[in-house]
C-alpha cells in the first residue's frame, strides 16, 4: 500500500470518515495535572562544613554604606502648625533650611512655595541623602478650591522624571530618586473634627503618596481631649475611605499585620510637639517648648508622641515607605502613563513622532 493511500486510513486500516475526524476534534486532549511544587527541605543539619551564606547581609550592609540611600519627605498642612520645625526636630538638624548657618534663635520664615531642600546626613558610617519638600500652608485663601492640585502635580512630576530615566536605552547605573516617599499631613488641634478641606486634601493625596497624619501642637489639648480627638480622626478617615500609611492591603504577613494594626488602631494619628530649641532639665539638655508651667519635652512619651513618630518613620518603617512608593504608587503611575501612550516610552509616538506629556491626573472638584 502506498504512503499516499495509507495516510487516508485509520489505525484499523479502514478509511477514516468525516464523522470520526469531527469527533476527534470535539474530544479534548487530556490536560496534564499541574505539578505540585515540592516543599523546600531544610538541609542545615546535613551540611559538612561552613559555607558562608549568612555573610550576604554583611555584604549588603557594606554596599549600602558605600553608596548611601535617598529618603524624600514632604510636609503638608495649614499655615502655622510648625511643619518646618517638626522636620528639623525629626532629624535633629536644620534640614528645612538651605543655609547650614541658620541660628536656632531666629524665627523660621513662612514657606511661600513648594521647595525641595537636600542634605546629606551621616550617622554611624551610614549616609542618607535626605530631601525635605516644604509646602506652603493652605486654607488661608478666600478660595481654597482644588488647592491640593499643585502638590499632587509636584508628586506626579517626580514619578515622570523617574520613568523617563528608566525607559532610556542608555540609562544611568543609579537613577536619581526624587520621588516622595512619605508625606506628613499636619492636622490642626481643634479637638472637634477634621475640616472638609482636610478630608478632600487627604482623599486626593492618599492615592499618589504614603500619607502619615499627625496632630500638630498637641500640647494645646488635655490628655482626655487628645485621646478623644485621635479616635474621632481615625473614624472620620475610615468613613471617608481615606487610607493612610501603613495601608492594610500591603501587610505582607501576620507579623506585619499584628505590628501595623497596633499602629493603625492606637498610635495614628501621632499627636506631636515640635521644637528645635534646647533647655536644661535635671542636668540634661533636651529639645522642648518652654511654658509658664514648665518645659514640654519633645522626646518624653509622657508629654507627646514625637518619639513614636520618629521611631516609626526612621527606625522601623523607612525602608518599607520606600518600597511601597516604588512597588505601588510609582507602578500605578507608570502603568497608567504607558497605557495612555500605547505602551511606548513617554514622549514617543508611532514613527518617531513626539507626543506631548500627559498632565498630572486631574482631580474632581470638592464635593
From TrEMBL:
The family this protein is said to belong to: Belongs to the TRAFAC class TrmE-Era-EngA-EngB-Septin-like GTPase superfamily. Septin GTPase family.
Subcellular location: Cytoplasm, Cytoskeleton
Protein name: Septin
Upper classification of the organism: Eukaryota, Metazoa, Chordata, Craniata, Vertebrata
Main localization category: cytoplasm
Domain Septin-type G: 67-340
Keywords: Cytoplasm, Cytoskeleton, GTP-binding, Nucleotide-binding
A Pfam family that the UniProt record links to this protein: Septin
InterPro entries: G_SEPTIN_dom (IPR030379), P-loop_NTPase (IPR027417), Septin (IPR016491), Septin3 (IPR008114)
Function: Filament-forming cytoskeletal GTPase.
SUPFAM superfamilies: P-loop containing nucleoside triphosphate hydrolases
Keyword tRNA-binding among UniProt keywords: no
Quaternary structure note: Septins polymerize into heterooligomeric protein complexes that form filaments.
Amino acid at each position: 500500500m502506498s504512503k499516499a493511500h495509507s495516510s487516508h486510513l485509520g489505525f484499523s486500516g479502514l478509511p477514516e470518515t468525516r464523522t470520526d475526524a469531527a469527533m476527534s476534534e470535539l474530544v479534548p486532549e487530556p490536560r496534564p495535572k499541574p505539578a505540585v511544587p515540592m516543599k523546600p527541605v531544610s538541609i542545615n543539619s546535613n551540611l559538612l562544613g561552613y559555607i558562608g551564606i549568612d555573610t550576604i547581609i554583611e555584604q549588603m550592609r557594606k554596599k549600602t554604606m558605600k553608596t548611601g540611600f535617598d529618603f524624600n519627605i514632604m510636609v503638608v498642612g495649614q499655615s502655622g502648625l510648625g511643619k518646618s520645625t517638626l522636620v528639623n526636630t525629626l532629624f535633629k538638624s536644620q534640614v528645612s533650611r538651605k543655609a547650614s548657618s541658620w541660628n536656632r534663635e531666629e524665627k523660621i520664615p513662612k514657606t511661600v512655595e513648594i521647595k525641595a531642600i537636600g542634605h546629606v546626613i551621616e550617622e554611624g558610617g551610614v549616609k542618607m541623602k535626605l530631601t525635605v519638600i516644604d509646602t506652603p500652608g493652605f486654607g488661608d485663601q478666600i478660595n481654597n478650591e482644588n488647592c491640593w492640585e499643585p502638590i499632587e502635580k509636584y508628586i506626579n512630576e517626580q514619578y515622570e522624571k523617574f520613568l523617563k530615566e528608566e525607559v532610556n536605552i542608555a540609562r544611568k547605573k543609579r537613577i536619581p530618586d526624587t520621588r516622595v516617599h512619605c508625606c506628613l499631613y499636619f492636622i490642626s488641634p481643634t479637638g472637634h473634627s477634621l475640616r472638609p478641606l482636610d478630608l478632600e486634601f487627604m482623599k486626593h493625596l492618599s492615592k499618589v503618596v504614603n500619607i502619615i497624619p499627625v496632630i500638630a501642637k498637641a500640647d494645646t489639648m488635655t490628655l482626655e481631649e487628645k485621646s478623644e480627638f485621635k479616635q474621632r480622626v481615625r473614624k472620620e478617615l475610615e468613613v471617608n475611605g481615606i487610607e493612610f500609611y501603613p495601608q492594610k492591603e500591603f501587610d505582607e504577613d501576620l507579623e506585619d499585620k499584628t505590628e501595623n494594626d497596633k499602629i493603625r488602631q492606637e498610635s495614628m494619628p501621632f499627636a506631636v510637639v515640635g521644637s528645635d530649641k534646647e533647655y536644661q532639665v535635671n542636668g540634661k539638655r533636651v529639645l522642648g517648648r518652654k511654658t509658664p508651667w514648665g518645659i514640654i519635652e519633645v522626646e518624653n512619651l509622657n508629654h507627646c508622641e514625637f518619639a513614636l513618630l520618629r521611631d516609626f518613620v526612621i527606625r522601623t518603617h523607612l525602608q518599607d515607605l520606600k518600597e511601597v512608593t516604588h512597588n505601588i504608587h510609582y507602578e500605578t503611575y507608570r502603568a497608567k502613563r504607558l497605557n495612555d501612550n500605547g505602551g511606548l516610552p513617554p514622549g514617543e509616538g508611532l514613527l518617531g513622532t513626539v507626543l506631548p506629556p500627559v498632565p498630572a491626573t486631574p482631580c474632581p472638584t470638592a464635593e
